[in-house]
Amino acid sequence: MLLEANNKNIKLAAKLINDGDVVAFPTETVYGLGADALNPKGVIKIFEIKKRPRFNPLIVHIANKEAIKEFSRKHDPRIFDLIKEFWPGPLTLVLKKKKIIPDIVTAGNDTVALRMPNHKVALKLIEYSGKPIAAPSANSFGFLSPTDPQHVEKQLGEKIKIILDGGRSNVGVESTIISFVGKDPVLLRPGGLPVEIIESVIGKINFSEEYSDKPISPGQLRSHYAPKIPIGFLTETSIRKNSDKKIGALFFKENLFDSVFVYEKFLSPSGDLNEAAVNFFKYLHELENKDIDIILCEKLPKKGLGFAIMDRLQKAVNKYL
Questions:
Q1: Buried b (16+ CB within 10 A) or exposed e, 6-31
Q2: What is the percent of the chain with per-residue pLDDT over 90, rounded to a whole number?
Q3: Pairing of β 32-36 and β 23-25
Q4: Which pTM was predicted?
Q5: Which letter does DSSP use for residue 143 in this model?
Q6: Helices 195-202, 77-86: inter-axial angle, 10-degree rounding
Q7: DSSP assignment of 216-277, as one string?
Q8: Where does the pLDDT of residue 211 fall: very low under 50, low under 70, confident under 90, or very high at 90 and above?
Q9: Potential cystine with 187: which of 14, 156, 207, 304 (Cβ 3.0-4.6 Å)?
Q10: CB atoms within 10 A of CB 33
């Protein structure tokens, strides 16, 4: 059921959370599918509804900065610099967990991924429930992330009781994930907070480019974020290879190819990577629903939010390789 995200309906959703059920709710990054992070029976429903493998851990969402001490331990001082600067916001921290966090949330790892979202509906939902909320994106596992309530309704509408309608997500890609488990911070997933901005606060961050079959956070699998039709990168070679097919093209700014496609979408005609991120999943959802055989996407510069967009494009393409 799609409901306006007013106080009455947020409290209704919070009651479902407390009753061990799940709800879909907006954040600034993408829509989440949430359950009480301290209730394994509720968390199991997330995996069942999404058909998500249980070896893939969840992010725990909290409503105040101090809660990090309640659910994690062994805090590097740089963590508090990041929290002060970027929470609430699209930054997830992977830390050593406390026993209060159930193993099903962390896929049996001794770490937990924590985030304080920058969205008034998400924060009120956590506050009204009085619980940390475990939540991945509110979609079928491996497919396009939802950035508006209609995306959630299309993929999961019949499986969940409440979808809180908070409008479109204003970041458009999932959070950046940094691990502080080892001696030095490691980027596990580029996301809605550019790495360059984080490094301006805590210095150089290592990047884990390897995919993992036993991830310690979301976003580490080889394939993910894919539409239901084939997707590839836009090159002269891929255009020739698919010349007998109906092609939908996704460009960054403009079409510089000597080709006209059945459908064309432009992430940001002005070349703004922030605007491109907001439109990224939105346009892929639109293209997925068109009468086309394949989506071909132009590569973006791997800087700022372009890094996050390219991470998701590569993993989407990997599904069809």
A1: eeebbebbbebbeeebbbbbbbbbbb
A2: 93
A3: antiparallel
A4: 0.96
A5: B
A6: 130
A7: SSTT-SSS-SB-SS-EEE--HHHHHHTTTS-EEEEESS---SS---SEEEES-TT--HHHHH
A8: confident
A9: 207
A10: 29
Burial bucket for residue 237 (CB in 10 Å: 0-12, 13-18, 19+):
exposed
Structure tokens at 93: 């921290």
Amino acid identity, position 308: A
For residue 133, give Cα distances in angstroms to 22, 30, 82, 229.
10, 15, 21, 32
* Whether 207 contacts 297, CB under 8 Å: no
CATH classification code of 2-207: 3.90.870.10
At the topology level, CATH places domain 231-318 in: Rossmann fold (3.40.50)
∠ Cα 11 139 267 (to 5°): 110
- Pairing mode, strands 263-266 and 2-4: unpaired
Q: How far apart are CA 164 and CA 155, in angstroms?
A: 15
* DSSP conformational letter for 178: E
